[in-house]
Amino acid sequence: MAKRRDKVAVVHCWGGASGYCNYGCVGCGACVAACKVDAIGLNENNTAQVRREACIGCGLCARACPQGIIEIVPREATILPLCSNPDPGSVARKLCDSSCIACGACERACPADAIHVTDNLAVTDVELCIACGMCATKCPRGVIRDANGILAKGF
Questions:
Q1: For 8-23, how does the pLDDT look when each residue is reduced to its tens digit (9 = 90+)?
Q2: What is the CATH architecture of 7-146?
Q3: How many Cβ atoms sit within 10 Å of the Cβ of residue 107?
Q4: 97 close to 140: Cβ distance less than 8 angstroms
Q5: 81 touches 119 (CB < 8 A)
Q6: Domain map (residue ranges) of the chain
Q7: Which residues pair with 73 in a beta bridge?
Q8: Which residue in 7, 16, 38, 78 has the fewest CB atoms around it within 10 Å?
Q9: Residue 15 has what pLDDT?
């Protein structure tokens, strides 16, 4: 049995595409095939989703992802934006039901100054994040998810 580590994989896409997002998960399964501990699979949207309790943070899935949207983060980073589309909000909104539209609500809500919109995407500084979830509760598109499922839908 693989040893649990202090890192975990996160897929920066939730698969809410109503059109086609060039930046999201393409559902190819490369990450699933690469994972040696069966910690990643495809969800109902045909998007890669990590089972955090099984993930050991080895990074094999991240290296296998052709889209480059899987990141290895500290396990305590439980509130993260799950979008990789850098298109402007008006374009991103048409392509995906759960894409970041760079509205800045998350930035304004964060008491730790840990999240900022950069290149039309919400980006969290996991070193500064206090996991209060204010960004997740204020995000109008549900882009920011809580891995524990307490404040917003989990990932």
A1: 999 999 776 655 788 9
A2: 2-Layer Sandwich (3.30)
A3: 16
A4: no
A5: no
A6: 7-146
A7: 8
A8: 38
A9: 75
